[in-house]
Amino acid sequence: METIAASHLQLVLEDNEKLNKENEQLKLRVVQLEQELNQLNSKHSLDQSSKKNTLSKPSNITTTTTIEPPTPATCVDLSLTEYLRYGRQLILAGFGLSAQKKLKATSILIVGAGGLGAPAAIYLAACGVGRLGIVDYDVVETSNLHRQIIHNESRAGLSKAQSAKMTVEGLNSFVECNAYDLQLDSSNALPIIKGYDIIIDATDNVATRYLLNDACVITGKPLVSGSALRMEGQLTIYNYRGGPCYRCLYPKPPPPETVTNCADGGILGETYTPNLLLFSAASHPLFRSIKLRPKKSDCEVCGNKPSISKLQDYVQFCGIGVLDKSPTVKLLGTEERINPKEYAAIRAQKARHILLDVREKVQFEICHLPDSINIPLRELPERLEEVKQALPFSNTPVYTICRLGNDSQHAVPLLRGITQGEVKDVIGGFYRWSKDVDTNFPIY
Ligand SMILES: [Zn+2]
Question: Which of 100, 275, 399, 444 fits 234 for a cystine, CB–CB 3.0-4.6 Å?
Answer without folding.
Answer: 275
